[in-house]
Amino acid sequence: xxxxxxxxxxxxxxxxxxxxxxxxxxxxxxxxxxxxxxxxxxxxxxxxxxxxxxxxxxxxxxxxxxxxxxxxxxxxxxxxxxxxxxxxxxxxxxxxxxxxxxxxxxxxxxxxxxxxxxxxxxxxxxxxxxxxxxxxxxxxxxxxxxxxxxxxxxxxxxxxxxxxxxxxxxxxxxxxxxxxxxxxxxxxxxxxxxxxxxxxxx
Length: 202
What we know:
Oligomer: single chain
Order of helices and strands: HHHEEEHEHEHEHE
Number of helices: 7
Helix content: 40-55%
Largest sheet: 5 strands, mixed
Radius of gyration: 20 Å
Number of strands: 7
């Protein structure tokens, strides 16, 4: 049975858009929209401007896949980063989580997901070919595989490790502190730091 909305069509549309975001359902989206409307000048208008700026200027880095207003991104172009080490992550959110910990000063490579036979995701659907090309650079000495500790994450890690055997690089994996089934974006900074420092050969 169709239930008529209690709000105007514009507000209803905004609620529908917000409810599609992770962590939002219809109820939390309605609360967020109500708060935005109540605080138009200090929340809604700045948010709208920020969204427009991001939509216009932010894009994936052509080298690592990070999101930035510059290409290459600020990490890839920084002279302070250790270019001998590349950390492989599934998504940009994982890259941000590791950066938040402040314990890694190398470069990153976002592969954009994991291998999944169930979902029909194969190596060609991920950003793995460019990783292998980057790893073949003589300056690169280590590749840290920081995929999530899930079945698909482990499968992806094994596949990348096998492909990297032809390259003259050391392959390591995040170790202590990352629970099986855990995802990097939900781990605290201390856990991530311990995992990075305790990495081991794969």
